[in-house]
Amino acid sequence: MKMPDIDLKELKKQKEENFRQRLEFIDKYVEWLKKTPNKKWSKQQKELID
Amino acid sequence: MIKKMELEYSKNEILIKNKNLSSLDKFAIDFTSILNRYAKYVIVSGYVAILFGRNRTSEDIDIIVEKISFNKFNSFWVESSKHFECINANTVKTAYQEYLSSGVAIRFSKKNSFIPNIEFKFPKVELDSWTLKNRKKVKINNHQLFISPLELQISYKLFLGSEKDIEDARHTYRLFQDKIDIDLLDEFNKKLKTDELFNRYLK
User: Could you tell me if A14 lies within 8 Å of chain B, comparing CB atoms?
Assistant: First the structure.
């Protein structure tokens, strides 16, 4: 199996960028939570966790 | 009767028999059943460990999808829209041009839900393309999906480096240490500079 070229600097940059995108998504999710009835969001959360 | 997870590992595929599917498994299977028909993809990161029994959940599943044409993506979008919706881009054009083609992931959830969701992105670095090329088939009950080679999965999780990531890496390594290609894992550990973490936490 041929190994890929790995540029650690590029990977670290990608890791930071992915993290930034996830943080943005958390903001979006919180905005949605604020305007969604507790019954609705908690049902989704329960289904995921149980 | 309590069903137990049984694994059969071969070079080309992993078979999981009799798994009681979690809601996250069902979500992954529902989405990839559609995606299987439109593009080559690979599931990476946390869900891989969860699929193989790691005792935690996740609100998202990360998928790298080969770069497909707009027309093909549009067909996928139309088909997936029957059950899923994109929660961070409103139109197919925005999703393709402003997000995916610019290196930004889009997210799909079941209609009227926010979690769990699929983080859907095109390959950005050579490692992403390698993962796609060398993806491994997993057959679970009567479904098939594709995951990252476990050697890379373990090493990359160490590279990410949070406690959760190291625990995922350890879980996957412990489960498959007699099956995986140890030389390949060593190579990745060298290239990603994760040898020390590997020796400290996984050996």
Answer: yes
Instruction: Round to whole Å and give the CA distance between B60 and B115.
Output: 7
Question: Which residues have CB under 8 Å from B151's CB, separation 6+?
Answer: B180, B181, B184, B185, B188
Q: What is the pLDDT of residues B152-202, one digit of tens each?
A: 999 999 999 999 999 999 999 999 999 999 999 999 999 999 999 999 999
CATH, residue B99: 3.30.460
B12 assigned to some structural domain: yes
Distance of alpha carbon B117 from alpha carbon B136, whole angstroms: 22
Q: How far is A17 from chain B (nearest CA, A)?
A: 9
Residue B103 gets the label, from left (phi > 0), alpha (psi -120 to 50) or beta, of left
Contact B115 A8 (CB under 8 A): no
pTM of the model: 0.94
Q: Which of B14, B24, B15, B195 is CA-nearest to residue B109?
A: B24
A-to-B residue pairs, Cβ atoms closer than 8 angstroms: 54
Domain with B59, as residue range(s), is 6-148
**Per the domain annotation, does B42 fall within a domain?**
yes
B130 touches chain A (CB under 8 A): yes
Is residue B18 in a domain? yes
Whole-angstrom distance, CA of residue B203 vs CA of residue B189: 13
Query: Any residues with CB less than 8 A from the CB of B203 and at least 6 apart, and which?
Result: none
Please answer yes or no on whether A45 and B191 come within 8 Å at the CB atom.
Answer: no
Residue B101 lies inside a defined structural domain of this protein: yes
Please tell me the distance in Å from B57's CA to the nearest CA on chain A.
Answer: 7
Number of domains, chain B: 1
